[in-house]
Design brief:
Length: 279
């Protein structure tokens, strides 16, 4: 049987992130991908864009959920990304109660990067997101989001022991198997690390560090990770594939300024089709 994911995040009409990444990536892995758009923006809110439109769709979510309940729909995974407001985080939490009980729940607590909150996010949002993380099987914060969730100072380079400690504390929020992205022990390699609190095992994967920012890579990572977990792969294999694919997307993006707002991930999608006929 083909697997089914529902992903809940915004659609940034131009800019290659959130739904315009999650849909092609998860679909390429042979998984049916339903969506609940949380907001419609003309572009993403990251560096280089200003004056974007933002239409909040919070009010549409309960109706979508009620209709799906009447239809008896169910999913193999629920995966959330960028959420647009505090109320929306609460409504998504209700959605988990209705659709997330017998399936994998993956929360990417999208809130910021490089030590700063994205435009429009507040401390109240951070507290609400911290609560949502407690109902997830996996959370996928970057270093900035982990420091916000844990209330610790932001840094870019950690020792392996410090990363293990961060992962244990992220599990302490109530999520049994957290994944931390943007991890570097030497400033020359970068990747991700994960912790399975049920077994006490740690997993990690690294590639050569590329010293430039490519927007949307967190969404690429979380989407591949979600696809792998939905296919029933192990935590270690999910981290390895997500790190490898994210690195390939960065490498496939020329540094000539033409695609300054996102990655050329489209060039790499073919790599993921090895998973397309799994179920
Ligand atoms: O890539 C994360 C993301 C998703 N959605 C919107 C964003 C960002 C990051 O800036 O602005 C609207």
């Amino acid at each position: 049987m083909m697997k089914k994911v529902v992903t809940i995040q915004d659609i940034s009409c131009f800019g290659k992130c959130s739904l315009t990444v999650a849909l092609p990536v998860i679909s390429a892995m042979g998984i049916e991908t339903a969506v609940i758009p949380t907001a419609v923006l003309s572009t993403h809110t990251g560096e280089g864009f200003s004056g974007y439109t933002f239409r909040d769709l919070t009010g549409d979510i309960p109706g979508i959920s009620e209709h799906w309940k009447r239809m008896g729909l169910s999913f193999d995974a629920v995966y959330t990304g960028y959420l647009g407001s505090v109320d929306q985080v609460r409504i998504v939490s209700d959605f988990f109660g209705d659709f997330g009980r017998d399936c994998a729940v993956i929360v990417d607590p999208v809130m910021g990067d490089r030590g700063r909150l994205y435009a429009g996010f507040t401390d109240t949002f951070v507290s609400e997101m911290r609560k949502l993380c407690a109902s997830a099987d996996h959370i996928i914060p970057n270093l900035t989001e982990a420091s916000l969730l844990l209330g610790t100072p932001y840094r870019e380079v950690f020792t392996e022991e410090e990363v293990k400690d961060i992962l244990r504390r992220l599990a302490g929020l109530g999520c049994p198997a957290p994944v931390l992205t943007g991890v570097s022990y030497d400033g020359q390699h970068q990747g991700a690390a994960a912790y399975d609190s049920a077994t006490g095992e740690f997993f990690s994967s690294f590639r050569r560090q590329v010293n430039r920012q490519v927007h949307g890579t967190g969404d690429i990572f979380a989407s591949v990770f979600t696809g792998m977990i939905t296919h029933g792969k192990s935590l270690g294999e999910a981290v390895e594939t997500a790190v490898g694919f994210t690195y390939d997307c960065i490498e496939a993006t020329p540094d000539d300024g033409e695609c300054w707002y996102g990655s050329c991930f489209e060039r790499c999608l073919g790599e993921l089709t090895v998973y397309a006929s799994e179920d």
